[in-house]
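In this section we walk through a basic example: taking a raw amino acid sequence and producing a predicted 3D structure, encoded as discrete structure tokens. The instruction is simple. Fold the sequence below.
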Amino acid sequence: MPKKVTYEEVLALFSENAVFIKEMSKESKEGFEKLRLQTLKIEEENAKGFKEVWDMFKKSDEEFAIRQAQSEKEFKELWDMFKKSDEEFAIRQAQSEKEFKEVWDMFKKSDEEFAIRQAQSEKEFKELRDMFKKTDAQIEKSDKKLQGIAEQFGGLSHNVGDFAEEYFANALEDKKIFAGQKFDDIERDMKAKYGSLKDQFDIVMYNCSSVAIVEVKFKLNISYLEKMVSQKVSNFRTLFPYYKDHKIYLGIGSMSFYDDVIEKAKELGIGILRQKGETIEIDPGYVKAY
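The resulting token sequence is shown next.
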């Protein structure tokens, strides 16, 4: 049999439920208020963010408008510049076409003149060729005559050269003095060969410390003077190593001298030996040692 519920028990139960409901209502109210405040805060933050975004877009629109206006201005300036360039290009092109036509006309004229000159040259060349053909026989005949004269003159030159060398050697042998130096001995026509190097020296005088090399020429030119300095000195030291540490003096003997040869000899420090009556004249003032 079920237990009988008393009035007090029911009342106590209702009292407990009322307290529970009251507490739940209070918690719900506090939670709702908290939720409402959070929602308001979120809305405020959203509103603030929206405003910042809106301000940013507004600012971007203004900057874009400024840049757009600037770009339009720059584009217009570029467009005007290109238009001006087109005009200048058209002027230059017209000028170039004119210059090209002038050059073309000049080349055409040059071609015509070249053709005329070429025809003239061919005519002159033919005349020259015919002239040379005509003189071939005369040249051949003249060559034979010149060869005979050269042989005779060569023999004469050789004889005159031998005479000159003998003359200067005898004159030097008497005192053996040259360039202020007293020499002990004198040699003529000294020849030597060492490997592929060979050379000949007309007159050589020497002592314990110095050597004098005197070359005698029937016909003398400046190039031979330069050869004496650049080759004769080094060749002598190589071919005659005993004298490699000796001072070497150079002299040139001839029956006659041109003024330019004398000046060159003085410049190079080569002594001049020339005939004076029955003796020889030597100017040692400018002779230098090598």
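Looking at the output, two observations stand out. The longest strand covers residues 185-194. The radius of gyration is 61 Å. In the next section we compare this with other chains.
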